[in-house]
Structures are given as C-alpha cells and as structure tokens.
Amino acid sequence: MVHVLSSRILLRPTDPERSRTFYGEQLGLSVYREFGTGAERGTVYFLGGGFLELSGRSETAPSPEPRLWLQVEDATAACEELKGRGVEIVRPPLREPWGLVELWIADPDGTPIVLVEVPADHPLRYRP
Predict the structure, then answer these.
(1) How many domains does the chain have?
(2) 69, 73, 95, 115: which has the fewest C-beta neighbours closer than 10 Å?
(3) Domain harbouring 98, CATH code
C-alpha cells in the first residue's frame, strides 16, 4: 500500500490570471503558497481534506476532464454569496436522490465544480 502524505488537483488554465481571480476572489479560497514569477506563476489553494472517490459504474471510459467536489456548510448561503461575487450558477442547490444538496458552478475554463452540503440527517454525518 502506498502511504499518501498529501494530495492536490492540478489544473492548467487557459488564462491563469482570470483563474486566480475566480478561485481566490470569487470562490474565496485561501492561498497555501505561490511559486515562480509573473503571469505564469503557480498558485496553490487550500481545499480542506482531499479524497479519491470511486463510485457507480460507467459503460464507457471516463472523461479526462477533472471535476471538483467541495463540501460547504450551507449550499443555499454559498449560492447567494457566489452570485454576489459574480459567479455564474450552473444549477442552484437541489437535494439529490442520494440525500446530498448539490450546487453546480464552473471555473472560467468550464471545469465543473460541485459544492455539496451534507444535511444533518444524512448517513455521512454518522460513523458506526
């Protein structure tokens, strides 16, 4: 077994400055560190704990397109805050059949981002 010490998702934006504005100012992520100089510098943001999720089954090979799953306390409040910051809402918060409340947005390059609220009565809130 490989002992993973940390993880991160790597994105290669078409316009790094526009993406830094989106993730840092509009989404409000805190900067962990920056490296390099100028417009092509790298910026690493905190995302909380990271996980690899395998779920469901697909009949075709998965898309190479990354997707971000970010847990928030209150999806409705997050939706209003993001709208106020000029973020386009792809789909407003809805309770899914599996019990989570999901809000869908996308970054400037179209990378799908799901903001997820785990309701108080959801099994993810309980550990046996």
Answers:
(1) 1
(2) 73
(3) 3.10.180.10
